Amino acid sequence: MSLIRSHSHWPRGIPAFIRRHEEPVAPANFDAASRAWRHFVRDQWVGGNAADQQKQALIERWATADQQFRDSYQSRALEDEPSVARPNFLDMHMALDGTVFFRDCYAKLIIDDRTLETGLGLWVEFSTNGIYTKAYRAQMMMEEFAHFYCEIGPGNQVPIEQALIYIESRVIYQDRDKNVDPREILEDEPVDMRRPLVEIYRGDEVDLVDDYAPGFREAEEQGNGLAIGYDLEQILANDGNPLTITDHGSDH
Question: This protein's superkingdom (predicted)?
């Protein structure tokens, strides 16, 4: 059974007719490539509730429309067609041929079952058409993690940024064979994440864990070493108030 609780934003999965763009789109060509799509969204978006359903309907309509329909929006779109502020498509765009591409091609950190078991976060670099160009599993359990509670404040941005910088700076690619496929996934050393957190860091941090994350050690014990389901909002920031969890992917 998976340790990750997944939430499907697309009931029954993404339809097969929604396809990625065949080739990556150069950043300089993004606006031109998505002009017709952005005009279509501005023309069709009605707002209100059920935003996810509306977004899915727009994507499906554009992907399945005949080329004449899409060309009609291309002919009416402004040269400097405004970007769509709402709805939030999370940097996803669609091309004139009905395929999908992404403006944001920065590396992404993926937390999966293997991460929870080993501490190895999956760091993936994608091209703009969604094909990954490089991926590796980097150890997230840096020594400083045990002391991040000292820096947690409103929005918890500082420790998150530090963690991502640490992972991105890992050098496990330096000594790789030049003839090896660059998309081969290399890995750092794993950590047995089912050991109690205070043991992983080999420090006497029990009181600090109890003070700043009440109930965490009990959740670890109940989850056979993994605090599955532990409510992060129980964690206290350094000012003694509950930790603020910010969802940067939300529409609101």
Answer: Eukaryota
Q: State the Cα–Cα distance between residues 182 and 173, nearest whole angstrom.
A: 9
Residues 65, 95: Cα–Cα separation, whole Å: 12
Query: Which of helix, strand or coil describes residue 154?
Result: helix
Could you tell me how far CA 220 lies from the centroid of its own chain? 25
Q: What is the mean pLDDT of residues 17-37?
A: 93
Cβ(133)–Cβ(182) below 8 Å? yes
How wide is the angle at C-alpha 33 spanned by C-alphas 12 and 16, nearest 5°? 20
Residue 129 has pLDDT above 60, yes or no: yes
Q: What share of the chain in percent tops pLDDT 90?
A: 27
For 131, phi and psi rounded to 5 degrees?
Answer: -85, 135
In this structure, the number of other CB atoms found within 10 A of the CB of residue 226 comes to 15
The tokens for 80 are 């400097």
pLDDT of residue 162: 64
Backbone torsion region of residue 12, taken as left when φ is above 0, otherwise alpha when ψ lies between -120 and 50, otherwise beta: left
- Residue 223: partners with Cβ closer than 8 Å, 6 or more residues away: 229
Asked if 50 and 113 count as a contact pair (C-beta separation under 8 A), the reply is no
